[in-house]
Each structure stands twice: as structure tokens, then as C-alpha cells.
Amino acid sequence: MQAMQASIRLQNALRTERGLTLGVWQMLPGANHARFMTRTRYDWICVNMEHGNIADWQIHEAVAAIAVTGTSLIVRIAANERALDSGAHGIVVPLLYTADDAHRLAESAKFPPVGRRGFGSPFAMGSTGGVTGIEYLQHANDALLTIVQIETKEALENVEGIAKVPGIDVFFIGLWDLGNNIGRPVLGAFHDDPSAAIERIRKAAVDNGKRACIYCVGGEAAKKYADQGFHMCTKTDAVS
Question: Which residues does the annotation mark as catalytic?
């Protein structure tokens, strides 16, 4: 467990009392692109398969390139097991609506007896400190992160219930979708962000022992949300 846990920089940071981290999203494919991004010294990089131009097979080269630098790697995905089997340190899942959705997600991301994730990938261990397959199987449930996006009106209405679901580690706020879905569209550089909704989500997370993440357009916004108590601040692709 120590080798696997030590290799996952983001999880280690989030388990500290303050736990502030900065991250960036990779939108374009390529191992060299991924390696260049790690030189920006962000704590974590999210390989964005939802909106980025990155195919299934390309997550393997991105994950491998990022992992060897000591930067944590997260994959925003459509299929949980495929991303985790590539060796990702966690997943970001969009379009969650209810606590039942969160329960199903947590089950799909965890091995039995906690969940129902299947074991068998020969790649997953490569980015987690060189652990064996058995060690990965034993410790992945505790070491890997499951991050959910709270971005719909339904998710906001159910956020306190979602926050109580075991196996969900982080709430991520995408401000444009959240604002649009609750009738408070964000204009410009988040000058009119839906502040009450943002604080409700952050509070639900921390009150239930989880962490909170938010998208930022730059350093000023990141400082604002870090001061508010967010643990993960992120922006899109640092080099595109």
C-alpha cells in the first residue's frame, strides 16, 4: 500500500488538512504534449476524453507519459473501467443527477466487496509505484479517486444526499454548465458566477469528509476559490 499510495500525489495532498492543489486539463493527444504539460509543475493533469480530441487508445500513452514525472493523472471519461485500467489515478464523471447515480458510479469504480469493478488489466499497475497486480487489487479502492461533476439542477438539488455516498471522493464544479442549468448563466470571466450554488456544493462536500474542485479561468479566480476553501483548482490545457 505504501508504494502505491506514495505514487499518487493528488490523493496524498487531498488527505492533508488544507489539501490545496492546482491542475490542468489535457485536450489534445500525444505523449510529448503530455510530458510538456508536466513541466508546468501542476499537481495533477486531467486527460479530457469528454470534450478533448483524445481517443480511447491515446489515454494509454498520455497516462504513461504523465505518470513517470510524478504528476497525478486523472481521466474524464465515458467508461469508468477503461480509464482506470489504463492506470489513471482517478476519474472525473460528468452529468450526475442523484444519490442513486452516485452509488452506481462508486460501485463501478471499486473492486469487490465494495463494488463490482472487474480485475484483469495488465496496464493499471504501471503508474502506481510499480506495485504488483495483487497489491493493486488490494489497495486500489482506497488509493484511487472518484470525482463527480455537480453541474445540473438535479445534482445541485440532491447535493447533500450525493455527498453522503461512500466511495465518492471529490465534487467538481463546472461553472458554465452549472450556471446554465440553474438559470444563472456565467458571462465573461465568471464576474457573475452563481455564488450561492457554489458555496452549497463546497459545504456539502466538506461537511461529509469529501474535497471540492472548481474550474478557474486564471490565477485570480484560483486564488478566490482557494481562499473560499476549495481543494482543487483547475484550468484547461496549459499549452494549447
Answer: 51
